[in-house]
Specification:
By secondary structure, the chain is of the alpha/beta class. It has one domain: Purple Acid Phosphatase, chain A, domain 2 (4-Layer Sandwich), CATH 3.60.21.10. The radius of gyration is 18 Å and the shape is globular. The strands form 3 sheets. Strands 3-2-1-11-12 form a 5-stranded mixed β-sheet. A 4-stranded mixed β-sheet has the order 4-5-9-10, with helices on one face. The chain contains 8 helices and 12 strands. It starts with a strand and ends in a 12-residue tail after the last strand. Helix 3 packs across helix 7.
Length: about 280
């Protein structure tokens, strides 16, 4: 059995199929971890949802910001504002079961036997893995509960931008969502910058990649994440980025978590992408 983690797909269904063939993925034998953002902008969001849902227990996907955006558009009453590439999902005969399945995906996945945590964007520096799991569980309970529509109406916003255990209600849930699905940079004291999307070294003064903050409480725990297509290679021994910008003309990457390479690190396998969606700005 092999365990593979694949970065943000964002509707690049054809590339996903080729990558699964490339790694000889067998759902009866292997396991697949997905960093979220299954949908949006690429041409095959509907097909991607159907494929991943159809894999059942062979695939684990966490929710990304684009997945939540789709759900918020539908359940928050703003379908007209969704990207046109999502229209096939909205008009599909199996729309309801697909969206119900998506709404019940986790915000974070941890495998204690394998020793990896899977998340879309990252963990704020104040959180240890136990805190992260508890916070993710709080949001998952709201997503799966009877008042999920109210959750989506209140989800958006950039504040609060710093964690405190005293946060409560919608402010607490909004911070958890932003940290797990939108974060890239933060200050040394853990204040999030949710707007800048460029690579390390180009960020505003005073900000660091979340995994470089001194004293990060998740340091030493292996974390697989996506969301950051401009990130590039990372030398840190405990963080493993999997988003290599397929949608933007890069490639779709699978990291073989188990068994690892001879150096103990995940082994990458890549599939070139056609770049269906071309960025209008330098950074995305």
């Amino acid at each position: 059995m092999a365990v593979w983690a694949i970065g943000d797909i964002q509707g690049c269904y054809d590339e996903l199929c080729r990558l699964l063939e490339h790694i000889d993925f067998d759902p009866g034998r292997d396991r697949l971890w997905l960093t979220g953002d299954l949908v949006n902008r690429g041409p095959g969001s509907l097909e991607t949802l159907r494929l991943v849902r159809g894999l059942g227990g062979s695939a684990t996907t966490v929710l990304g910001n684009h997945d939540l955006h789709l759900l918020a558009g539908v359940h928050g009453g703003h379908e007209e504002h969704l990207n046109r590439t999502l229209q096939p999902v909205l008009t599909a005969p199996d729309r309801v079961p697909l969206l119900e399945w998506l709404r019940h995906r986790p915000m974070l996945h941890h495998d204690p036997a394998l020793g990896y945590t899977l998340v879309h964007a990252g963990l704020p520096p104040q959180w240890d893995p136990d805190t992260a799991s508890r916070c993710a569980g709080e949001v998952e309970a709201r997503l799966r509960g009877p008042d999920y529509q109210a959750f989506f109406r209140e989800m958006y916003g950039d504040q609060p931008d710093r964690w405190s255990p005293e946060l409560a209600g919608r402010e607490r849930e909004r911070f958890i969502v932003n940290a797990l699905t939108r974060m890239r940079f933060c200050t040394a004291d853990g204040r999030l910058d949710l707007s800048y999307k460029g690579p390390p070294g180009s960020q505003p003064a005073g900000y660091l990649p979340w995994f470089e903050v001194p004293g990060r409480r998740s340091r030493g725990h292996r974390i697989v994440f996506g969301h950051w297509s401009t990130l590039g290679p990372v030398a840190a021994p405990d963080v493993f980025p999997a988003d290599t910008g397929c949608l933007w003309g890069g490639c779709l990457t699978a990291l073989r978590l188990d068994p690892p390479g001879d150096d103990g690190r995940p082994v990458p396998v890549t599939e070139p992408c056609r770049g269906h969606y071309r960025p209008r700005r330098r950074f995305r």
